[in-house]
Structure formats: C-alpha cells, structure tokens
C-alpha cells in the first residue's frame, strides 16, 4: 500500500488526529474507538507496513515512545499496568497496514481482557524454539 492510501499517513499529513505526541521518528494519537480511557496508538512517522520492514532505529524510536507513554499512563491516569498490542502480516489480524502499537492502560478489575483465550490450532513439525534459534544464528 502506498503512503497516500494509508489512513495513518493521511492523519499525519493532514494533522487531524487527536495527538498525544509528535516526533521526527514516531508519534502517538488517540484511536477512534478506544478500548479503555487513554488508549493510544504509537506509529512510526514514516510509512512502514509492519515489524518486518521497519528499520531497527525507527522501531527503537517507536518503542521508546511506547515506554514513555506507558510511564505517563501510570502517573497521569493512575493505571496499574498497560497492554502493548501489535500485529504484523497477513496471519496476524493487522487491520491497518502501517506499523502501530496499541498502548492500553489497565486497572485491576477493569473488565477487559486482551489476552487470547485459546492457543493456536497451527502445528509445526519439529521444535519451534530450535527452529527459531537456528534462524537467529544463521539470519
């Protein structure tokens, strides 16, 4: 998808989002349908589809903003925790093809769950951890 077609790129270009933070590498804004009060999206300021094509420095800047935002949620919103959610690629349920992180403030007994309730039905032949170790060592 070209940047001109990306809803997040359009928001940044037009400046129409409800901004929480704007930086050269990453920015943060409130989603249209928040899961909780203070739920915020963090996105790279340039278009990258997902974790697979985002340069390490941009990913680091995005995660730094995620951490700053989580700390702000703890102090400004009295959140006792946060969920950081992201999806990349066709099998992940990624809804907008621009890398983004949902930072959702949480409170004890807040009534929501962001954790899967059942494991994947997908099966692999062999040891997944060994396959990952091999890929990391030869990648």
TrEMBL record:
Q: Classify the source by domain of life.
A: Bacteria
Q: Give all residue intervals belonging to the HIT domain.
A: 7-113
Record motif Histidine triad motif, residues: 98-102
Pfam families named in the record: HIT (PF01230)
> Which GO molecular function annotations are given, in alphabetical order?
catalytic activity
InterPro entries per the record?
A: Histidine_triad_CS, Histidine_triad_HIT, HIT-like, HIT-like_sf
Active-site positions on this chain: 100
GO biological process terms on file: nucleotide metabolic process
- Protein name per the record: HIT domain-containing protein
The organism of origin for this protein: Streptomyces xanthii
The opening ranks of the lineage are: Bacteria, Bacillati, Actinomycetota, Actinomycetes, Kitasatosporales
């Amino acid at each position: 998808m070209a940047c001109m077609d990306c809803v997040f790129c359009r928001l940044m270009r037009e400046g129409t989002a409800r901004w929480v933070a704007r930086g050269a590498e990453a920015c943060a804004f409130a989603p249209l349908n928040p899961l909780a009060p203070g739920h915020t999206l963090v996105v790279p300021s340039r278009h990258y589809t997902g974790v697979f094509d985002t340069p390490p420095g941009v990913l680091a800047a995005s995660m730094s903003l995620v951490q700053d935002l989580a700390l702000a949620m703890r102090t400004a919103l009295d959140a006792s925790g946060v969920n950081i959610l992201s999806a990349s690629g066709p099998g992940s349920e990624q809804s907008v093809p621009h890398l983004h992180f949902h930072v959702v403030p949480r409170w004890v007994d807040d009534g929501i769950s962001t954790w899967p309730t059942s494991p994947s039905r997908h099966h692999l032949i062999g040891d997944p951890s060994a396959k990952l170790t091999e890929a990391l060592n030869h990648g």
